[in-house]
Amino acid sequence: MPNYQVTFKPNDLSVAAAEMASLLEVARKAGFVLSAECGGQGTCRRCKVKLLSGGLFIAGEQNLSDAEKAGNIVLACMARIDGDVTIELLPESELRYDPGAADRDLEPQEHPGYALKSLGLSLTPLVSKANLDVPPPTLENSVDDYSRFQTSFKKQVTDKRIETPLSVLRSLASEVRQADGHLAVIYAEEADRIGVVQAVHEAKYMYGLAVDIGTTTVFVRLIDLADGKILGEASDYNAQISCGGDVIHRIVYAGKGKELAELQSLIQQTINKLIKSLLKEHKLKKDAIKIVVAAGNTTMQHLFLGLDPKQIRLEPFVPTVTRIPVVSAASSGLDVLPTAPVFHAPSVASYVGGDITAGLLAAGIHRSEKLTLYVDLGTNGEIALGNKDWLTACACSAGPAFEGAGVKCGMRAAPGGINRVESDATDGILTFQVIGHVAPRGICGSGMIDLLAELRATNRITPRGKLNQEIDPRRIRANRGKQEIVLVKGDNGTGTDDIVLTEIDIDNLIRTKGAIFAGIMTLCKGVGIQPQEIERVVIAGAFGKHLDVNNAIRIGMLPDLPRKRFEYIGNGSLQGASMALLSQRMWQQTQDIADRVTYFELSSWPGYMDEFMAALFLPHTDGRLFPSVGKINVR
After folding, report:
1. What's the CATH number where 264 sits?
2. Structural domain count of the chain
3. pLDDT tens readout for residues 10-47
4. 318 burial level (CB within 10 Å; 0-12, 13-18, 19+)
C-alpha cells in the first residue's frame, strides 16, 4: 500500500500517511487535536478542515452547507487519503487550550497544606523518607546487602513486610557503598507492607504530583511534600477528545480493536506533556517526583490503565475495578521516577468515579453536619447528596452540551466564546460578553445558561423552549423550516457565519439541564427529603467557576434555594487528590467515602424518567419548586 505526503497549513508540517488512512487519525498522529465529539462518526461536524490541494476520498455523507462545499471544506473524519494532499487547519476545529486560571498565583488558603492545617492535621505524605544506617559487611558477617538493608529498616523504621522493586535492587550494592552505609530510603507505607520507592546515597528533592484525569481537560499539580505548597499547575485538553467528546463515545471507540491502546497512549502523552512542562519550569529532573495521586471518572481510569471499559456501558454496568491497586509510574507510562507509586482515588460505580470521591473529600461533605448537595457540572453530570451520616450519588448523563457539543454554534470556553448574556430591563435588548474581548465565534456553556434565562425572561421562548417570532421578528427567523434566533450577524466580507441558537439547540440544552435537576430530585426523593431542606450547595468543575447561579435556577437546573447557600469549590477532584497525597488520613478517608456512598443507577431507578420529563420545561412543570423564578422570569 503506497504512502502519501500530507501537509498541514499553516504549520507547514508534513507527515507520511497510508492510502485510505483517515485524515482525522493522520492529524491526531501528527500532534493536532481536532474536535470530534461524535468519535469520528460525521455527526457533530466539528472536525472541519480546508482542502487546499491534492486528493481526498470522501467516505460518507458530510452534511455540509453549499457554501462550505464550494469553499473546499471537508470533515476530517469522513476524508481518506487518496494522494499527496495539503490541508489547512481551521481555528474553530483545532483545539488550542487556554490554561487561564492555571497560570495565576494561588491564594494561601488554596494550598492543600493549608486545608489540612485548618483541619488540625499535620503533613503525612503517602511516601516518607528515612535516613537508614546499614552496617557494612565483614568476613565474619558476610550477609548479603539486601538482607542487611531489610534488617536495618525493620529495626530503625518499621517491622512491616518490605517489598522492593528489581530496579532498586540493581543499584543497591553501589548506593549503599557510595553512601558509606548511610542510605536515604523513600518508601510508601500501606496497611500490611512497605513499598520501597528509592534507596540512594542522597535524596535531595521530595515532590509529588496530583493529577485530575478529566474527560475534557487534564490538570497536573506539582506539590512540595515537605510543606504542602503547590509549586505549579499545568493543564491541557485530554487528547482523547479527537476520539469522542464523552465517555460513551470513548468506550465505543476503544472497542474497535487496537483503539484501546491508542486511547491509553493519548492520555499518557497528555499527562507526560504537562509533567515535562512543570519539571522544565522548576528545573527539576524526573526522579524528583516520588509519588503520583490520580483522580478521574471510572472510564478515564480504565483507559489510563489500558483496561477494557466495555462493560461500563452494558447492563448491569459493572467496571473491571473500582479500587485500583497501587501501581508503579513505569507500568503506568508516566515519565517520573519509574518506581514512584501511583495511587488512584477509588471509584463508587461505573459512572461515579474517583474524581467525585476526591471532590467529596475536598468539600468535606463526609464530615459535615449540614445536608449538602455536590454538583460537578462536567461532561458526566455527577451529583452527590449527604452529610457525615450518609452519602448518595448518581450520574445524570448530562452530556457535553454545555461544552458546545450538540449546539450548532456551541464551543468550549476559549477566546471568541460568548460567556455572558444580559437583557435590558426596559427594552429587552440582548448584550454579550466575549472571552478575550475579540470577535465572537460561538457561545460557551455559561453563555448558554444566561441566554436561556434571558430568552425566557423576555418571552422570546416559551416554557417549552419554542421560539416566539412575534416578540422579536428582527432576530428570530425560519431557516430550512426550523426556527432560530440570530445572536450575532456574520460578515459576508470575511466569510463568517451568523451565530445562532436553534430550537434544536434549545431542546438539547433543556434536556441537559433537565437531566441535572432530575438527578437532584431523584436523590432527594430517594432519601425522603425536600430540596428546600438542602443547607449547602457545592458547585465543582471548571465550568462552575463562570456559572451565574441565579440564571441556573431561573432555567430550572439547580434548586431554588437562598443564593447564599451556594459556593464554588473549583477543581474538587484535583484538590482532593492533593489532600490525599499529603495526608495518609485523607487517603484513608477517600476509601471510607467510596464505601459509604449509596449509588443510584438512574437508568433503572423508579421514577427518574418521570422526574426527567417534568424537568423538560423552563423552569419546571411544577412551578412550586421555583417560587422565586415565578416572580422574575417573564418581563
Report:
1. 3.30.420.480
2. 5
3. 989 999 999 999 999 999 989 898 988 888 888 888 89
4. exposed
